[in-house]
Every structure is written in C-alpha cells, then in structure tokens.
Amino acid sequence: MSRNSIPSTQAVRLLRKQGITFTPHFYRYEDKGGTAVSARELGVDEHAVVKTLIMETEDKSPLIVLMHGDRQVSTRNLARQIGCKQVVPCEPKVADRHSGYQVGGTSPFGTRRAMPVYMERTILDLEIIYVNGGRRGFLVGIAPEDVRALLNPTLVEVAQ
Prior knowledge:
Elements: H1 10-17, E1 23-26, H2 34-42, E2 49-57, E3 62-68, H3 75-82, E4 87-89, H4 92-99, E5 117-120, E6 129-135, E7 138-142, H5 144-151, E8 154-156
Parallel strand pairs: 2-6, 3-5, 5-8
Antiparallel strand pairs: 1-7, 2-3, 2-4, 6-7
C-alpha cells in the first residue's frame, strides 16, 4: 500500500509528526459492528483490537478509556480508581464534539480536546495492538509502548 493511500487524519498526522511507527489496516465498516467486525475482517484476535471510549465524570469532564475489544469497562471501578463519584459513556454527539472524530472512527491520537487517557494495564502485555486511526474502517497497528510514550496514559484495571 502506498503512503498516499493512508487517510490524512489528525491521528495519522500526529503519529507521523512524532515519528511513531504504525501499519495501516483497512476493513469494511459495519454500523454498530464494533471490534468484533474489525477483528474478523483483519483476521486478528479481538483482544488486540483496542477500542477508544469517550466517557465523562459526574461534572461532565471528558476522558478517554482504552480497552480491549473483547472486554467491557467497569465504570464503577474506573470511578473508584480515578477518584470521582461516577463515570459514564458520553452520548455519541457529545463524544464527537470532545474528540473531533465520529463515533466508530474515534482515535485516541490527535483529539480536538486534550483529555486524560486511561488505559487497561494488560494492553501493555500485547506485542501489537490495533487502534482506530481516525476514520471508520481504518485501524493502525502500533506497539502498546509507543501508545504509552505518546499519550502518557494512567494505567487502570477496570476490565470485565
């Protein structure tokens, strides 16, 4: 695949600017298909497909949670670990405004608004992860340590 065929999303521009190595992966997007579809289409383990979730605290402060595709976030445990009363997923339109991306194509890289990032600790155990590249149907393969270096996430244990 030529370099010019990779979408020029905010995420891709940031990764290139920071010199982060990544591989582009395209798949046929299915509305509400989630990580099961992308994992199936790419022929990878859904555990290695990391979803980018935009959530907010009780005072409407947005945050990003990076979670394995085959796991859910315990919002109760997350709230406890980050020291707030409640964490809930944002409504799609609100998530779009915070991130600058469309739900289904939300990348943790190059978001419109700077937000704290929380990453499930066990993501670091993987050799490579597949995370959204800023467009529906487009993931980037990247080393978890590069994600850690770029985003400086707080590591949490909130998978269920």
